[in-house]
Amino acid sequence: MAETVFEELQRYVHFSEADGALLRAFRPLARPRFQEIAEEFYARILSHEEASRVLHGGESQVGQLKVTLVAWMDALLSGPWDEAYWQHRYQIGRVHVRIGMPQHYMFGAMNVLRAGLGQVALERVTGAALEPTRAAVGKILDLELAIMLHTYRDDLLAQQARTERLSTFGQLVGSIGHDLRNPLGVIETSLFILRGRAGEDERTRKHLDRIKDQLDVANGIITNLLDMIHDRPLAAEPVLLGEVVDGAVAAVRRPPGVTLEVSGVAELPAVPGDPVQLRQVLVNLVENAVFAASPAGAVAVRGRRTGAEVLLDVEDSGPGVDPATRRRLFEPLITTKERGIGLGLALVKRIAERHGGGVAYSEREGGGARFTVRLPC
Ligand code: HEM
């Protein structure tokens, strides 16, 4: 039978049955110290600002994670180190990928375990068994690190495949988008003529208005799609964001239950950029915010300046974005809307970056979402 990835990795680090026996013998000696090692493990993460960012759940989450880490160490030293073990550890690796934990923290984290378990071995294992036990601990932790990194690699490969799919998809969508413009144009012209003939018939006018609305929606989707595919040349003129925000806010419909507050944007200095594309950024963000806050809630657009950058926050009091979606929020075709196709935020990111800035998500104080667009000024 062909060698599995796990067997191949075991062969690479020279992990043998003798190592397994040593780990099992070491387990009862190390067990009383698991809690202490888990404390050190999370103290290290919490003392590091960037690494601790993925711990959103506060003390209760850390408490729970310590329990899972103790169980993890127990399984580490008891085995059996078979395919089921690999699968289980692989799933744990996937959890870290899913929450967007940068893989470089894995090395330092694994070293805390290495040092902790190594120290216990020094103190508790006596005689000739000491060195082989320490070596066995080293090998199994190398294997664990390899499994963790493997999950990141698989994720990267999946992303690459996605990008390739998207590129093919992009070409297809581009041509469909172009082809749809013509029939939509014909409908629009005929609609114009029908409007002239509809006279005072209330119902007919209402339905013609409806057709026009939906036509605008369809055209908007096509514009977004085509903008996504072709990088339109950027105009570079001084843009007053106050005006752009006002225009965008006026273009977004919102139910009466959703309040909208704009502040701090009129005072902002002009930024070099493309007013049409920046308007698109604001329209997309405000549309999303209104959608999230509907049927009743609050949306706010706030401007501020820090150093050489202008920041625009678009906030809503909706449910916020769940951690699993956050990581891929700005990728095309990721949507939480039943009728959306997931281009709005991808386009926002693309336009902001083409202006030398960016966009980031954070949680709004008191619940909800906040998108912050950065633009150099
Ligand atoms: C040697 C490295 C590590 C090991 C052995 C480890 C172990 C674990 C285990 C066993 C779980 C539970 C998985 C499950 O629910 O099935 C977990 C989840 C988690 N780990 Fe780690 N971890 C490591 C590194 C890190 C680092 C460096 C961080 C933070 C910087 C971190 C943050 C988290 C978080 C936030 C979760 C919970 C994710 C969720 O359920 O939403 N881990 N880890």
CATH topology of the largest domain: Globin-like
How many strands appear in the DSSP assignment?
A: 7
Strand content: 5-15%
Tell me the number of structural domains. Answer: 3
- Main sheet properties: 5 strands, mixed
End-to-end distance: 63 Å
SS summary, helix count: 12
Small molecules held by this entry: protoporphyrin IX containing FE
Query: Pairing-aware structural class of the strands and helices?
Result: alpha+beta
Summarize the structure.
The chain has 377 residues and is of the alpha+beta class. The chain contains twelve helices and seven strands.
Textual characterization of the structure:
- The chain is 62% helix and 12% strand.
- The protein is α+β, with helices and mostly antiparallel strands and 377 residues long.
- The chain folds into three domains: 5-160, Globins (Globin-like, Orthogonal Bundle); 169-229; 237-376, Heat Shock Protein 90.
- The strands form two sheets. It has a five-stranded mixed β-sheet with strand order 2-4-5-7-6, covered by helices on one side. It has a two-stranded antiparallel ribbon with strand order 1-3.
- β4 and β5 (309-316) form a beta hairpin.
- α3 packs across α4, α7 (130-197) packs antiparallel against α8 (202-229) and α9 (241-251) packs across α10 (275-293).
- The chain is elongated and about 100 Å long.
